[in-house]
Amino acid sequence: MAAVQAVEDASGAKPAWRGGFGRLWTAAVVSRFGDALRTAALPLLAVTLTSDPFLIALVTACGYVPWILFGLLGGALADRVDQRRAMWTVDLVRAALVAAFAVAVGTGHASLPLLMLLAFVLTTLGTLFDNAATALLPSLVPSGALGSANARVMTGQQIAGSFLAAPLVPVLLAVSVAAPYGVDAASYVLAAALVASLRPAAPERAPRKPGATLRAEVAEGLRALWADRVLRGLCVATTVCNIGMGALIATLVLDVTGWLGAGQSGYAATVTAYGAGSAVGGLLARPLVRRLGRIRSVLLAGAVQAGCLVAVGSVRALGVTVTAMALFGLLGMVWNVNLATLVQERAPEAMLGRVSAAFRTVAVAGAPLGALMGGAAAGAWGLNTPALLASGLFMAAVAALIPARAA
Fold first, then answer.
1. What is the mean pLDDT of residues 363-387?
2. Is 289 helix (H, G, I), strand (E, B) or coil?
């Protein structure tokens, strides 16, 4: 597999914009634009409802828990159903939910329980959507172009979220507190229409065994993930990183607005810098892979990210935080592009949804734990301590991944 991967990386194959990939890319970018408006606005809404760090972190945790409960099921369903149809159906349902939430916010009925419920339901639907999207992409681009396709999708999403959506949030909030959520609902509708127009090649699936159950198919996906040394090591490392990311994301708004005293504008600058760095990382991911290979690129990314988090948690200056988060985002994109591509390259085609789901379910399980740990640490030892906690976890993740580099 390593030799094949090296050939594909060196080939410079790129996905064609015309046809299915261009529409899938546009749908992903439009949807990300709307989601970025919502995710940037929600923490600001949460801090108007409570000042308790643990409760704010609990909102974030509710956005991860469904992966633990339903992630494996979503992957098994993604291998069974028409992936295109599953994606546009889920998007329409999410559009209706976010539109209803916009009405609740606009009429003054927002509450922390409602925020938690929205996060939980949207992520539950996302377990099917995300696994279906991962399994659909290889049917729209050549295998040698998967790395480039993943980088283009993720880079486009970051540009839409950081350079377009994040700066627009204060403008929309000035118009109406519900405006970001209304735009998010509209973005889901447009993305659903684009996905519905796709005509991908049908994946080759072996006939299902008589009496096969979702439980048995889920177990097959878990076994396939565990049997691959590279994917197993990457899954363990990503799980540890996600504990740190959960702690960081859940409390970043408190770190910037409270510990740094930088206010909403400082938080917006930090989020924008993170997204800008991520966009640059999408452009650098492929050249870095050509020089170092996928696993070594991931190791470098994790090590540098750990250093960035030390700076965020120990230097009380907005400029340092903004710079560190920009570099953190850049290396995070390198990690994510290689993660997605390795799963798509190494998992059996007929089991891609299940292997992807197994990977994500195990990895995402760390995030709600991290969010709760971050909230507790911020309340007990200071609003900057979750970033330092995350740094230590990233260092541990790099150490866990080192054995996989020889595979």
1. 88
2. helix
